[in-house]
Design brief:
Elements lengths: L4 H8 L9 H11 L10 H5 L14 E4 L5 E3 L2 E3 L2 E4 L3 H23 L4 E3 L20 E4 L21 H9 L3 E2 H5 L5 E3 L4
Antiparallel strand pairs: 1-4, 2-3, 5-6, 6-8, 7-8
The chain binds zinc ion.
The site of zinc ion (ZN) has 4 residues, from strand 6.
Length: about 190
């Protein structure tokens, strides 16, 4: 016999209403040690300015975070990085997980400490619409080996040793243009395509 949803809910300590809603799902994930993958708005939702990320170019929605390991922007170490406040905990946690998995030496070897920036009020490379960078919800890493038109397997971030790097970001709901579209491998964003 299938255990009733209400019994599972009672066991998890959430209100036993028999409905599998967000609260129950969260409790199940927690009980099983599964991290929920957050669902971020789509690019078009972000661009209409009515998503949780608000209007573009709003510097007051950005916060500064201290990265878990040193990041370098054009050879200069950056003290902190400025990202949209809603993605900040995810960026911080993802970088912690990257450090934990790879360690400093491997991070350096793979260029995962080469930072290409986040907030930038600018259009996309085609110039037709605002880039997700204009909301501070896109980050670029290892720009040198991962230029806009560099495809796999030339793009260094497409190599198998970067698989875990992407798995970590994807666990936080971020999207890689490289993994999804095979261009701009440096770029990841907290908006669906
Ligand atoms: Zn980018």
């Amino acid at each position: 016999m299938k255990p009733s949803i209400r019994r599972i809910q009672a066991h998890l300590g959430v209100s036993a209403d028999g409905i599998i809603g967000p609260q129950t799902l969260r409790a199940i994930s927690q009980a099983l040690g599964i991290q929920e993958i957050p669902t971020w708005p789509s690019q078009s939702e972000v661009r209409n300015g009515k998503s949780i990320f608000g209007a573009p170019g709003r510097e007051d929605s950005l916060v500064s975070i201290l990265p878990a390991y040193p990041l370098y922007f054009e050879e200069q170490q950056v003290r902190s990085i400025r990202v949209h406040r809603l993605i900040a905990p995810h960026v911080q946690q993802a970088l912690r997980e990257v450090l934990e998995h790879y360690g400093r030496e491997e991070i350096g070897r793979l260029g995962l400490d080469q930072y290409g920036g986040c907030y930038n009020y600018r259009p996309t490379s085609t110039g037709n619409a605002l880039s997700m960078h204009a909301w501070g919800i896109a980050l670029d890493f290892a720009p040198r080996g991962n230029g806009l038109k560099v495809q796999a397997p030339r793009a260094t971030l497409s190599h198998p040793d970067c698989e875990v790097w992407w798995q970590i970001w994807e666990k936080h709901g971020a999207v890689s243009l490289g993994r999804e579209r095979n261009y701009d491998w440096m770029h990841l964003q907290f908006a669906r395509l």
